Every structure is written in C-alpha cells, then in structure tokens.
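TL;DR need structure tokens for one chain.
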Amino acid sequence: MKVGIYGASGYTGQELLRILLNHPHVEVTAVTSRQYKGMAVSDLYPVFTNRTNLVFLDASPEEVAAAADIIFLALPHGGAMKVASIFLDAGKKVVDLSADFRLRKVETFEAWYEKHGAPGLIKEAVYGIPELYRNEIRAARFVANPGCYPTSIILGFAPLLKNSLIDTETLIADSKSGVSGAGREAQIGSLFCEVDEGFKAYKVGQHRHTPEIEQELGVLAGREILLSFTPHLLPVNRGILSTLYARLTQKTTTAELLELFRRFYEKEPFVRIYREGSIPNISSVKGTNFCDIGVVADGRTGRVIVLSAIDNLVKGASGQAVQNMNLMCGFPEGAGLGMLSVFP
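>> reply
TL;DR here they are.
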C-alpha cells in the first residue's frame, strides 16, 4: 500500500518515516515540506542516508492523493482542517496527528485553539486510541491521532474509571516530557541553555491537551470530568512519564489493582503492566510503541498512584498513528512496530 506524509519535515514526520521504512506492507511514495522543497530527506535527517531516496515535495493535497492510498497529516495545529476534506473526497484514508479533530465539540476546540475551519468533519473523525476504540478505528476512514500527554494519562486512568474505583472529583495528572514534544522549530524555551540542567513546569492550568484528556476520561467514567493537569519539561530528548493520583472509592491493595490492570489490558500488545514494586522508566520505552504502567495503592492516604511511561514521538504520536493505520487497512496491528528500546 502506498503512503503519503503531508508535512514530513518535523519530528513526528521523520518518526513516521523511520517506522514506515521498516513496515512490511507499505511503501512511502510522497513526503512534503514547503520549507525544504527539493531537498533529499537524508540531507535534512542524515539518519536516513542509504535508506531512502525520497525528496521533499511542495505538493498540493491533490498531487499527494494521486500518489498514495493512505495519508498521514503531520501538520501544525490548524493545518489539517484546511486539507483533510480534499484527501477524504479523493477516497483516501487519513490519519491526522494534529489536534484539529480530537475534540468532539466545536465550541470546546474553539475555546482552547482557534476557529474551526471544517466543523462538519469532526463527527466523522474517530479518536485513535486502539486500546479503547479498536473496532471503530477498523471501520474508519478518518482517525484523529491522540496527543502525547493524553495517551499516557488516559491509558493510566482507564481501568480505574471503567471500574468505578476512583473518585472522579480527585483526579490529578503530573506529567513530564522530553524537549522533542515542543517540535523542531526554534523556540527560546527549548534551546539547550534554557533546558539543560533545568526542570520546570509550563502552561500550568492552561495546557491545550486538558480538554482532550477530560473528554476521554469523561467517556470512560460516564460523566463530566475536571482534571488538574500540570506538564513539566525534562532536559531529555524524548519520553513522557505521567504520575496520576486519585482517591480510591474502596479499600484495595496494590496487588489487586495490578491484577485489575492486567485483566483490562491482557490482549493489548503495546501496554505493559509492571510487577509490584517495579516503576516504569522512560528509558525503557524510548523509540518504542509501548506504554509501560506501574500502580501503587497508598493505604495511608487512601489514594492510588499510577505511573505511565511512553515515548512522546512514538506511542504519543507516530507509532500510534501507524498502529491506527494497521487497523484501518487490515494489517497485523503490530506491523512495523516491533522495536525495543535502545538501552542504556
């Protein structure tokens, strides 16, 4: 199957290409970038030297649609809503890695982002967490790939909310991310001297992933959810560790909670539940599509603590996008995604 990456020069675009070049069932036939038009991909990213002869194109959506069967939109927020309908009208399947179609309510999107340019498509977009929406994704032609923080938080809280084991008014997510989450464009806040040897919170109480997280946790809980979410910037390239807190609604043990998580995710190829006493580390998921989860029942406070680790560029973006593509196209779900972390 032929694949196009529309907006391929950023970190998520290059990560898509890294994964897709090793995928047994697809061929990447078009990669676009206005900024790097005419440049060989391997000149911008030397990691691809002798692995691909692809050149960045400044191509229209119609041209890319003519060259590919399935399209990944790896555009900045606001870009996908301008072109998604062109690909869909051409009969192509689309996976959008931006936030443009993740929120189900137009008014919520516009309160946190900007005026929506394609509100009529929102209802068609399937939210792309395979662990929760696998059947819907299989039947979809348009998938909204989740954000990185939301992926780690939603997968961490899901078993507890689905089983009504936590007080929904007490949810806290304390998340830390590597610098690549800010993208490849030069920003003062992600310069080496600004990040190295530092550790800080940012966008406290106002991060735009908040409504996405609340939306999906609300679906799991069957009621509206308000969450306290604070992201932090780690002086590392990639990885997210989310530490999640909530008050338990009944007395339980760590062993019982771990068994619940194991049962909930027992058929999931990319969720790994740690044994009691073991805590996830972002180094174990770097470059992989895994979400590693540890759980602790704090009997002293009556709270549960969940630790959820992902690679923000893989399970938090491009890897999950390929996982969704596999489901949409009838490929084995793990095709192209068998990589383990490079450790140490």
